[in-house]
Each structure stands twice: as C-alpha cells, then as structure tokens.
Amino acid sequence: xxxxxxxxxxxxxxxxxxxxxxxxxxxxxxxxxxxxxxxxxxxxxxxxxxxxxxxxxxxxxxxxxxxxxxxxxxxxxxxxxxxxxxxxxxxxxxxxxxxxxxxxxxxxxxxxxxxxxxxxxxx
Length: 123
Prior knowledge:
This protein is mainly alpha-helical.
C-alpha cells in the first residue's frame, strides 16, 4: 500500500513539473513500477505449491464428509443401513448381539429400543 501511495505521489509530482522535464523516469520510479507490476506478497504470507493446494482440497473434502455425518439422525442411520441390519437379523442375530458388537467396536448411540422400533417399522 505504501509503495502504491509513493508511486501516486511521484506521478503527481512529475505532472506538476515544467514541460522541460525529462520524460525518462528516475531509477527510483523505475524500481517502484517494477514492484508494482510484479505480484505483491506480504512479508509473512506463505506461497503455496500445487501439492499444498491438493492437500488443502483433500482436507476440506474430509471436513465436508464429517459435516454430513453429523447431520444424520439415528433413524436416518438405521434406515440407510436397513438391508444390512435385516440381513443380520435373518441370520439369527439378536438385538443384544448387535448392540454388544457395536459397543465392542466403539459405536454408541443405538439402543435396544431403537432397534426394536426399527424392526417393527421394517415388517
């Protein structure tokens, strides 16, 4: 921002000079115009590579997946996996078997009442 302000001031000064002023820019003005035409990067700003960009996108996509997971209700989860649950029960698994297996695999939030209600709706 300071470079741009400096350039504007120098431009204004050159406009107010007499017509006999030399049209060739001073070295200082030339340096300023070079800085202005190149990309301006702040001191502490990091420049990212293409790999960084891909990694950033992957992280954001993972976050989207997590957000989708958080928005499902228990009933939506049971309905989504209806066929698998019904297959388990047809194979002879009981509600307690399913709950125990879920708990052993650190999955919580499903209760016996939820599964009983699910079975009633599925029949």
